[in-house]
Amino acid sequence: MPYRILVIEDNHDIARLVEMHLQDLSYQVDLAVDGRTGLDRAIQGKYDLIILDIMLPGIDGLEICRQLRGTANHTPVLMLTARITELDRVLGLELGADDYLTKPFSIMELLARVKAIIRRAGLAKQPAPDNTADTININGLLIDPARRAVNVDNAPVELTAREFDLLLYFASHPGQVFSRQQLLNNVWGYGHDGYEHTVNSHINRLRKKIEQDPADPRYILTVWGVGYKFVEPRQTNV
If we measure between CA atoms, which residue out of 91, 101, 122 comes closest to residue 52? Predict the structure, then answer.
């Protein structure tokens, strides 16, 4: 079965160009040119990825993302934005978008992002092999890779696919310091200067979900001037 991608973009030229290049990679592509149609198709259809413009007639992309995540729809979202400020990009990530591109963008970069997201989403759907089925339990944080489930102090935590991948990567390397660029390469599947804010936003969201006090984290620690690391077992907060 070919992967299915929904493109929600009101600029017909951009939508057709993206559709053509995705079809060249053998993806099945559906188009929507307004927010309401796009939201309806995203809810009703089963897609492997949604490419979502922010500025849309009817319902904007931020609201679409908010409503999808509010209904527990975790289809990966690649958000497109033409706005200059970072506010919309940050809001999109905070609402649950997996990644973003700023217009004008390179088709080659778009395709690289799409392939990376599709690849990671496909891996997430595969049953975990026996040698990775062991749970990780660090200081009250329990991660079950086979079930892709997380508990903190015996309470379940709902994470998006990308948040889970990021947390699992951290927890699999306790005490190791990673730069934002390394996390982009290893968790997102690509590296690109200027997109480190994607990492920051996902870490902020993770902290809100797993930390008792996100301002004083006990799991994901900041290493100033370098990046982030995951706490080692029984290590006190720093």
Answer: 101
| Cβ-contact 50, 80 below 8 angstroms | no
Residue pair 63/91 in contact (Cβ under 8 Å)? The answer is no
| Per-residue pLDDT tens over the stretch 158-170 | 887 788 889 999 9
CATH no. of 130-230: 1.10.10.10
d(CA 15, CA 201): 27
Tell me, what's the pLDDT at 165? 87
DSSP tag of 118: H
The Cα–Cα gap between 178 and 170 comes to: 9
Residue type, 192: H
Superfamily of the domain at 4-125:
Response regulator (3.40.50.2300)
CB burial string 126-146: b at 16+ within 10 A, e below: eeeeeeeeeebebbebbbbbe
What is the reported pTM?
A: 0.67
For the CA atoms of 83, 45, 201, 148, the dihedral, rounded to the nearest 10 degrees, stands at -170
Specify which of 91-95, 156-160, 168-172 reaches the highest per-range mean pLDDT.
Answer: 168-172
Which residue spans within 127-224 are E strands per DSSP?
136-138, 141-144, 149-152, 155-157, 177-178, 220-223
